Amino acid sequence: MPTLSKAASLAALLLITFAVGREIQVRRAGYGLSYNDDDSLWASQHRRIYGSGAAAGPVLIGSSRIKFDVDLATWTRLTGQVPVQLALTGTSPRPVLTALGNDPNFRGTLLVDVTDQLFFAPDGAPQERKAHERLRAWPKWSLAQQASFWLNEKLESRLVMFDEEELTLNAFFKEMPLPNRPGVRSFPRFADNFATNGPDRQSAFTNDFVRSPAKQAQMKAAWLQLGAAETKRGAGGDTLLAQLRTIKRAVDQIRGRGGRVLFLHFPSTGAFRVAETRCYPRALFWDRLLAYTHAPGIYYADYPALAHFDCPEWSHLAPADAARFTEALVPVVAEKLMKNKK
């Protein structure tokens, strides 16, 4: 018995030593606290969409731009309302918009990020896969998963090494410079430690990334492989019309219950801006979206207070600019919603 006790004590000591050493290592490497943007974190925010009262904020859906560019703390400070961040990186918001349209209990304000290449992606495209997976997972969020989420949240709020998206062995293997198999296209390598994710699902560039032209250049190179060099015009004709019909149906459902929907187009610069302008001409896509759905929209370039921001890697705002952008955005959103109030 004493032998087993000594072995257990030694094992515990080794585990603690390893954990302390690992935590010191990742902190010295410049990593900060970040939460895993998994099904449970998304579900924890999703259940807030049914809140009521003065503190009930708008629901945000879309892709990564609305996660980076709308600063939730600034929005809350200015309005007293806490937004619900449901955007999903790299996805089209159309599946989530459809789900909220079909949800008879949703009667809130919905802000929809229109990142052209993702928003107008074809039905069934990979850009929709993650959204469908999250929507399937939400009703199945069990009590056991909620308890596990609560425990993980406590650990993630204190220990950097629990950032599974950046610091696991799988993440390490993904970063290894292995050659592609013939005919297989690999996902481009993102810069290390370029962004964090908060408990409210707020995304933000790290200070290390903001100060590093080399890491910004690496992200630009990745974007060139993921759409910033695109030259092909987005789908029009019957394909676009079918998308617009689905979008309008969801908008009409939400507005019919007393809710409100507002489309937002966020800044992009450099090669991304060139590709978006070339492949998704405003008159054929953005303007048609608003005209067909009869919903209000805010295109950043139309407002001097929103039009002057630069994106370090062409696609998202740095944290300080996101706060300033949100300060300028809040009154424009309020004005648009007031004008379109039933």
Q: How would a crystallographer describe the biggest sheet?
A: 5 strands, parallel
The share of residues in helices is 40-55%
Terminus-to-terminus distance: 75 Å
SSE class: alpha/beta
Describe the structure.
The protein has a domain at 53-128 and 213-339: Rossmann fold, CATH 3.40.50. The chain is 53% helix and 9% strand. The chain has helices spanning 2-28, 39-46, 64-69, 72-79, 94-102, 116-119, 126-137, 143-156, 164-167, 169-175, 207-210, 213-228, 237-256, 270-279, 286-293, 304-307, 319-339; strands spanning 56-61, 82-85, 109-113, 195-197, 203-205, 260-265, 297-299. The strands form two sheets. A five-stranded parallel beta sheet has the order 2-1-3-6-7, sandwiched between helices. A two-stranded antiparallel ribbon has the order 4-5. α4 crosses α17, α5 (94-102) packs parallel to α7 (126-137) and α12 runs parallel beside α14 (270-279).
What's the arrangement of secondary structure elements?
Blueprint lengths: L1 H27 L10 H8 L9 E6 L2 H6 L2 H8 L2 E4 L8 H9 L6 E5 L2 H4 L6 H12 L5 H14 L7 H4 L1 H7 L19 E3 L5 E3 L1 H4 L2 H16 L8 H20 L3 E6 L4 H10 L6 H8 L3 E3 L4 H4 L11 H21 L3
Parallel strand pairs: 1-2, 1-3, 3-6, 6-7
Antiparallel strand pairs: 4-5
